[in-house]
Amino acid sequence: MDCFWSTWALLKEGGRPSPVGGFYSRLQTSTDSLLHHILLAMASSLMSLVSDDSRYQKAFQLFLERSSEHQCMRDFIHNMLPDILASIGNGKSHLNVIGVGSGAGEIDLEMLSELRLKHPGVTVDNEVVEPSSTQLHNYKVLVSQKPGLDYIKFNWNQMTATEFEENWKVKKMTKKADFIHMIQMLYYVKDPGATMSFFQSLLDKNGKLLIILVSGESGWEKLWRTYRNQLCNTEISQCVTTADIKSFLDSKALSYQSYELPSQMDITECFTDGDEKGELLLDFLTEVLDFSKTASSELKAGVLELLRHPDCSVESNGKVIFNNNLGVIVIDQLT
Question: What is the pLDDT of residue 231?
Fold first, then answer.
């Protein structure tokens, strides 16, 4: 990787020939083309973490252990979500729910529990959309072990949000949803705005679409804003925060409610060279498979420096604590 930077520097800073006739412009075109291929080669050497599901799941579990992510979500679910859920359904005895990117189901079941408390006696049709076979299996195991879920019919969809949308359109489905939640998943679609618009179109009267992403005020936003071109996979949105979602909604003049959820993550191990858990956390932070081994020394040094910067983290008692704040956006049925 270092040789690419050296070559690029030579091409950009090296001597240029005299512009005799069209010679210089042809050479410049050739140089630009070479630069383009070099950049492509550099980009292709950094593989997305999601391309290795096993390592992704390991990194994700470690992230959950090192962060207050699920706890801050649970606080929101039990303290604020009930008021949001109170207005859905319009008195119906049966509610349709869609969970997009449901993972292993722990958060889903807590939301469904609050839904049941707000609407006692209802039955629920729950579409679970999750591309990971591992996560879907864990969700099914959780359901089999948890009593009192007889009021819910689970429909398992091992597919991405995009595949679910395509499947829905092919089948010409007309079913409407009372509650749709998309938690930490809009990073993995090509066009977050289009995906949001599709699922918003599925909302029934008084329906709610709940989106949770990293906050535009988080360390993630600073990291992605600085290294978006080097780290982010252009085939999926990946580097998206609630600030991007709000901008999209504002551009469409769509109303929404928003909430900030304080969260933090201990990333101290990232700064111990060769630390196995630190490398997993770096993979998760950058969404790059084996980041420490495949990134250029310049990129790695830059990322580590930024992660330690006050814009991203605070240092306390020998620990580096990353700003993992989340944002919640709630959207109503399109009118």
Answer: 81
